[in-house]
Amino acid sequence: MDFIGKRKIWYTITLVLLLISIISLFVQGLNFGIDFQGGTLLQLDFEKTDVTDAEIRETLAEFGLEKSSLQRTEDSFILKTPELNQEQQNNVLKAFETRVGEFELLRSENVGPVVGNELKRVGILALVIAFALQIIYISFRFEFRFGIAAILALIHDAIITVGLFSVMQYEVDLTFIAAILTVIGYSINNTIVIFDRIRENLKLMRKEDLATLVNTSIKQNIVRSINTTLTVTFMLVALLVLGGETTRYFSLAMLVGVISGFYSSVFIAGSLWYDFVPLVNGQKKVIKL
Amino acid sequence: MRWDKVFVLIIISALIIGGAYLAVDPIKENLNLGLDLKGGVMVRLQAQGEVDDRDIAQIIEIMRTRVDSLGVTEPVIQREGKNRVLVEIPGIEDPESAINLIGKMALLEFKTMNGEVVLTGKDLAEAQEAKNPQTGEAYVGLKFNAEGTKSFAETTARLVKEFPDSPDMRSEGRHIAIYLDGQMIQNPYIAEAIPSGEASISGGFETLEDARSIALLLRSGALPVPVEIIENRSVGPTLGADSINKSLQAGIWGLAAVMVFMLIFYRVPGIIADLSLVLYSLLLLGILIAINATLTLPGIAGFLLSIGMCVDANILIYERLKEELRNGKSLRAAVDAGFTRAFTTIFDSNVTTLLAAAVLFFMGSGTIKGFAVTLSIGILCSMFTAITFTRFVLKALVDSGLAKNTKLYGA
Questions:
Q1: Which of A289, B10, B159, B356 has its CA 20 to 30 A from that of A115?
Q2: Are residues B22 and B45 in the same domain?
Q3: CB contact under 8 A, B371 and A192
Q4: What is the pLDDT of residues A114-136, one digit of tens each?
């Protein structure tokens, strides 16, 4: 496969995906869960097995909470309401007991607005710091142009992951930040491995033109890139399918990030570097490292 | 065939497989599980207004007394930042009442009709719940300290003197209202001066249990400043067990998929990779136990994720190995070259993930910190197993002459 020669195609695909992500982020934003927004989550497992959504909503309506989100899992209901204080929560729970029936409270979470706003701030700060550290490390280990290309690929992965969550309106919770940061740390690996190879080949293949060299470097690494993405994917798919409700969005975010990381490292990063070279050296054959 | 090397290989394989088998129970017993896995309550409190270190220390002390009264094991109560206190109570039966107990200010005030505060919780020597043998009503008996006794005697005497009853009506002024956290619980009439320093709060308690929790709150003292519960999370034991079960399922299937894949794709080295995965898991869990880390649900996710990442080091090495073999190198030379060349790559790629994990560790809290810890230790362990174990075993295998055909290496 000619990665460099067809790079306009990859660039186009990438730009379209990025555009969709960014537009969606501006238009509909993210679906923040209670971790960020503040609110109350109650997970109830009723003894009766034939409890309907309508029954739950009717009870919630008594408290003016009919607009709360309601989600069914295999054996329980997850309700998300605006923040309730302890007394309100007790009243709601009592109402469920009398109107719907006995239940076990599997989980309850109350998050105040202070915590949510703080989490947003800390989350963004953490992202910025993580990006900065990666830039510093790559610039230190490689030359500057590699660094820029790698970081662009990385920003791409982050935007695509956040973008998909915006487009699909998947819920963004506490673990989402962990997922994005891990994606940032992990997906840059693929890019580094390829750049490492380019750097090595620059010494070995002095006579080849740059396009061939970059292509060869990517090809030499493609099996490794695929395999390493696959093994992580196995784990993430297992978590996504079998791991239950709490880690679902975490696995999903990681999965998107990892796949996007594979794509950007193989199709984008090398091409970007190739295009950056003449910006400094003026021609494509002479490179000094 | 070099039998000494073959022997070494057999011993190593047996040690790892046997070790894994034997380690299952000790790991299960000694691993520290987080609240989200074993069930429990987490409450985050924020002190309102200006607070100093002494206020926070006092809040923590009071919280400890309150939580201890619940009779739970190993509660964690610690300061967070400038004005916050985190309370974690594992394995609790009734999370709701625990949260209620923690959130109470416990500010006791005795006020006269004109709003003058005559006594506070500071004047208390004792508070004990009891039941009135005649009416069966629960009440809290109070005993004031010396100073409290004195001022209670003075105040009651003064009120009796100042507000004499008219023959047909009790005087309005002869009441002392008892407020708890700004809410009036009782407004008793003072029949006569009380010099004994004893009083009781009755009314408002449905059960002895209720009276007990108020008595406890009063005994442990009022919080120095108002606090607000800004976050609380509770997980029932059923959900925790369910989470462990599901993660275990996910782990088993994911691990199996990775192992089969490595075996099919890399053949003989694949076996080594699979063994190194087992060793890696043992090492990671062992370290988590040794440093007394707490495993949370995101932590488990991090662990499983790191298994997927851990094989990357093996993949890098074997891909290099195949390449060197294709370039016509001998098996032994190819193994050496594969390791040398792959090492810097493994190093670089792991450092970046470590950087991200470090950011998470320093900026995250609670469960996210747990994730960062598992991920970081995972990365270090995977590097360690790749450059020591994989290398040693692969070399021993080549030296042993057991697998000479380069096809067995996927080349």
A1: B356
A2: no
A3: no
A4: 888 888 888 889 989 998 898 88
Which of A185, A221, A231 faces B356 most closely, judged by CB atoms?
A185
In chain B, the residue whose alpha carbon lies closest to the alpha carbon of A244 is B246
Residue B190 Cα, gap to closest chain A Cα (Å): 33
- Residues B31 and B52 grouped into a single domain: no
Q: Can you give the CATH number for the domain in which B277 is found?
A: 1.20.1640.10
Contact A189 B353 (CB under 8 A): yes
Give chain A as a DSSP string: --TTTTHHHHHHHHHHHHHHHHHHHHHT--EE-HHHH-EEEEEEEESSS---HHHHHHHHHHTT-TTSEEEE-SS-EEEEES---HHHHHHHHHHHHHHT--EEEEEEEEE-HHHHHHHHHHHHHHHHHHHHHHHHHHHHHS-HHHHHHHHHHHHHHHHHHHHHHHHTT-EE-HHHHHHHHHHHHHHHHHHHHHHHHHHHHHHH-TTS-HHHHHHHHHHHHHHHHHHHHHHHHHHHHHHHHHS-STTHHHHHHHHHHHHHHHHIIIIIIHHHHHHHHHHHHSSSS----
Chain B residue closest in CA terms to A41: B233
Q: Give me the residues of B, 60-99, that contact A with CB < 8 A.
A: 95-96, 99
pLDDT score of A192: 87
Among residues A236, A195, A187, A218, which one has the least CA distance to residue A10? A218
Check if B235 contacts A (Cβ < 8 Å): yes
Distance from CA of A277 to the nearest CA of B (A): 23
Residue finishing a domain among B214, B234, B254: B234
pLDDT tens for each residue of B172-198: 788 888 888 888 878 888 888 888 888
Q: State whether residue A181 sits within 8 Å of chain B by CB.
A: yes
Q: Which of B234, B266, B295 is the last residue of a domain?
A: B234
The pLDDT of residue A284:
47
User: Given an 8 Å threshold on Cβ–Cβ distance, is B355 in contact with A235?
Assistant: no
Q: Provide the domain limits for residue B112.
A: 40-234
Q: For residue A288, what pLDDT band results from cuts at 50, 70 and 90?
A: very low
**Residue in B305, B341, B357 nearest the CB of A232:** B305
Is there a single domain that holds both residue B223 and residue B242? Answer: no
Q: Is the same domain home to B56 and B197?
A: yes
**DSSP codes joined into one string, B87-123:** EEEES-S-HHHHHHHHH----EEEEETT--EEEEGGG
- pLDDT at site A95: 92
Taking alpha carbons only, the member of B326, B387, B369, B308 closest to residue A178 is B369
Q: Is B258 on the interface with A (CB under 8 A)?
A: yes
B408 Cβ contact partners less than 8 Å away, ≥ 6 residues apart: B267, B268
Q: Are residues B213 and B274 in the same domain?
A: no
Query: Domain A39-111, what fold?
Result: Alpha-Beta Plaits (3.30.70)
Whether the per-residue pLDDT at B93 is higher than 90: the answer is no
* pLDDT recorded at residue A280: 66
Shared domain for B210 and B248, answered yes or no, is: no
How large is the average pLDDT for residues B242-251?
Answer: 92
Q: Work out the mean pLDDT of chain B and round it to a whole number.
A: 87
Same domain, B47 and B195: yes
What does CATH list as the number for A7-31+115-281?
A: 1.20.1640.10
Query: Smallest Cα–Cα separation from A150: which of A54, A35, A39, A271?
Result: A271
Residues of chain A with C-beta less than 8 angstroms from the C-beta of B233 = 107-110
Tally of domains within chain B = 2
Cβ-defined contact of A182 to B375 (cutoff 8 Å):
yes
**B126 three-state secondary structure:** strand
